[in-house]
Amino acid sequence: MNKQEKSYRNRRGDRITRDQNERITAYRYSDHDEFYSFEYEKDGSVASIDRSDGWHWRRVDSGWVVKNYWDSWSVREEDSGSVMVDDSGIHTTGAGGDQMALPE
Q1: How far apart are CA 96 and CA 92, in angstroms?
Q2: Which of 6, 28, 35, 63 has the smallest C-beta neighbourhood within 10 Å, fewest atoms?
Q3: Could you tell me if 39 and 19 are in contact, meaning their C-beta atoms sit under 8 angstroms apart?
């Protein structure tokens, strides 16, 4: 964490780090060892998610590419919907958001 970032815990005990623009740059659920880090597009939408145990989510033109040590797959944007992170965690708005394998 650099001097421009601030870190705090929510009511559930999750650890959240925000940058100087108030975007969440890191999230650690209180009941998980892994933490998630985020990069954003210029418009503020989530562009990528990296999990400390080697999982990666990357936004592409058609949706998302999900990779781990053993596999990779694509999730269409109409299935994932929007991907957001806030003080309560990572969320998708699509009906097929479970294909993203995120801890919603």
Answers
A1: 9
A2: 6
A3: no
The single residue listed with the structure tokens 């559930």 is 12
The Cα 45–Cα 82 span in angstroms is 8
CA 91 to CA 81: how far, in whole Å?
Answer: 10
What pTM does this model have? 0.92
pLDDT in tens, the chain (104 residues): 666 899 999 999 999 999 999 999 999 999 999 999 999 999 999 999 999 999 999 999 999 999 999 999 999 999 999 999 999 999 999 999 999 999 87
Picking from 23, 29, 26, the residue whose alpha carbon sits closest to that of residue 10 is: 29
Instruction: Provide the β-strand partners of residue 100.
Output: none
Assess contact for 67 and 51: CB atoms under 8 A.
no
